[in-house]
Amino acid sequence: VERKGPFISTYKRYSMMPGRRRFLQGSAAAIAGMALANCRQNLANVNPAGSSSTNAEAGASSDTLYIFTWANYTDTSLADAFTELTGIKVVIDIFDSNETMLTKMQAGGGSAYSIIYPSDYMVSEMISLGLLQELDPTRIQGLENLLDKWIDPAYDSKNAHSIPFSWGTTGLLYNREAVPGTPTDWSYLWENQQALSGQISMLDDMRETLGAVLKGLGYSYNSTDPAQLEEAYNKLLELKPHLASFKSSGFEDEILGGDLNVVMSYSSDAIPITLEDERMEYIIPASGSSLWTDTMAIPVSAPNVEAAYQWLNFILDPAVSKAAVERLFFATPNKAAYELLPDELKANNDLYPPQDILAKCEGIQSIDSASNDLFDQYWTQVVSA
Amino acid sequence: MANPTAPPSGPISRLTDWLANLPPPSHWVRPLGLLGPAGTWLFLLMVIPTFLILEISLVPGLRLGEPGGSYGLDNYLRIFQPVYLRVIARSLNFALASTLMCLVMGFPVAYWLALMSPKRWRNLLLVSFVLPLWTSSLLRAYAWTTILRSAGVFNTILGLLMLPPQNWLHTPIAVLIGLTYSFLPYMVLILYASLEKLDTRLLEAAADLGATPQQAFWKITVPQTLPGIAAGCLLVFITTLGDFVVPTLLGGASSMNIARLIYNQFLGPTRAWGFGSALSMVLILAVSLAIALLLKYGDKSSVSETSQ
Asked: What ipTM is given for this predicted complex?
C-alpha cells in the first residue's frame, strides 16, 4: 500500500539515499523532514544498528558479533558483507568518546562486545588496565599491508593488542559563506568570538579540546605542566560563553542547517560534509592539532573471540577497506587499500594532508593519573561554568 | 523474644521461642505476599544501590580499575567550590522558574477544565491535554530544537511579524521553555483534581453576600485548592530539579545543571565516580526534603489520584 503522507514520502526518499546527509543537501528541506532527520540522528547515537540491535541485551551467541565503535565507522553494507562471507550476524553499538567506552567496559556493561575501537592513547591505557587481549599474530592475515608508520606504533608496541583501523586529524569545519575571514588557526575562534557567538561547537572530549587550546598557546597536546594547563583552562573559559555546545557527534544537521558555523571536528566526520556541501571547508589549524589512530581490539571479556579474529581479517582485506573508505571517508593505514583508492580521494588534502602539516600534529598520549586528574578537574570546571 | 525467666537456652531453643511467638500465619502471609514482590524489587534496586552510592561518595579520587583509597569527605568538600555551587544554584533556578511558569500557565487551564468547560467534553479535553505525554520526552524536547533554531519555526514567525530574530537555542531561555512545556501537563492534572473537588456552593454563597469574583477567587478558590497547588508545585520542582534531557538538548554549553554534571562524572569524559556519587547524594537529599514537605503539606488525595 503506497501512502503519500509527507512523513512517509520523506522517509522513503531519505532511506533510499546513499548517505544520510545527502538528504539534507536540498536547502528547502521541509521542517518535518528536518525534525525527522534530527530524531534519526539522535536515536542513531543511542543505538545505531537500528534494525538488528534489539536483541543486544540477549547476550552473545556464537553466530553474532557485537561491536562497540565510533559513529560513521561501520555501515550496513560493511556489516552485511561480513555476514555474507562468514554467516556471522553483526550488531553495532556506538560510543562518542574513549572515556565513555572505557567506563562501560570497566563497569561490565560491555561484556557482550568482542570487538571494540579504542583510540591510540586509550589502547595504552586499556593495556595497562589489563582490559585488552594479546592478539595471536598467527590468526591474523594482512598485517604486512600496513603503512610503515603503523607497523610498530608508540601506543601499542608491534600491534600486540590492537590493529590500526583508521587515522585522521582534528580540526575546524566551517561554513565559508557564514564566517568572517578565513580560519587558519585555533586563535581564529578567540579573535572572532563575538561575531560567531553561539555558532561554535567544540568536541565533548577532555583531551582533544583542552589539548587544542594547549596547542594554540604553543604548548604540546600532551602537556602535563600545571601552569600551562591552568593557562589553557583560563583561555578556554574566555571562549566558553560563546560556545553553543560541546559535541563530539550529531552536529551535522546543525552546521548544514546554519545553526553552527564553526565546528571542532574529527576529519573523518568533517570530510563527508565538505564533500556534500561545497560551502563547507575543513582545516587543520596552523599551530598543529592531534593526529589520531583508531584501532580494533579484542577485550579480555570478549565472548566470541573467533568471530572477532574474522572481523579483524575482514577489515584488513584491502578490497574491503577500500570500499569502506569510499563510503565512510576515513583515512586507512592499510597501504594496499590506499593504493586501490581512486585518485580523487588520494589527492584529497583533508583525508591525506601534506607531510609538512602532519609534521606539526601530535598523537594524544596516555598520561599519568595525577595529570589526568588535573585535566578532569579543569574540564569539569569549564563545562560547568 | 525469648522469655527472660526461662532457663538459659541455646540458639536453637531461642529460635523456636521466636517462631512460637510470631503471630499466626493468617496475619502475615497475605501482607507479605502483597508487599513481597515490590518490596524485594525496591530493596534490591533502590535501597542497596543508594547505599552503594553513599559508600562510593565517601572514597576520594576513586577511579574504576584502580584500587580505591581510604574513606574521606573530599568529594563532598569539592561540591563547595564556587563553580559547582553555581551549578546547583542554576539547577534550583531552573526548577523554581519552571515551577512558577507551570503554575501561572497551568492554573487557568485547570480552572477552565474543572469548572467552566462543557461537562460532556471534559474527559476528552483532559485526555487531549495529556496526549503529548504519550510520546517520548526525548522526542518532545528534540522538537523544540527545530522550533528554536536560528532558521527555525519561531524565527520564521517573528520574521513574518517584522520582529528581530532571537537565538534562544543553547541558552537558559530554551531550557526554561522546554522544562515548562514538558511538565505543564502534570501540573494541570494535579490542579484539575484539586479544583474539581472545589465546593462551588461556597462561590455562590460568596456572590450572594456581595463578594466580587476576585474576592471570591482569592478568599475561597485559592485557599481551598492550596494543598493541590502545593502538591503540583513540589512535584514539578522535584522532577525539573533532576531533569537531564531538556538541559542537555536545549541548553548546550550554557546550562550545566546537577543532573548533567552527575552524568558527566559517570559516563562523560571525566570518570570521577566518587564526586558524581557525592553530587547524587546531595540531589537525593534535596529531593527527599521536598518529598517530606510534599507529604506534610501537600494534598495527598490529589497526588494519589493523578500520579499512578
From this structure: 0.75
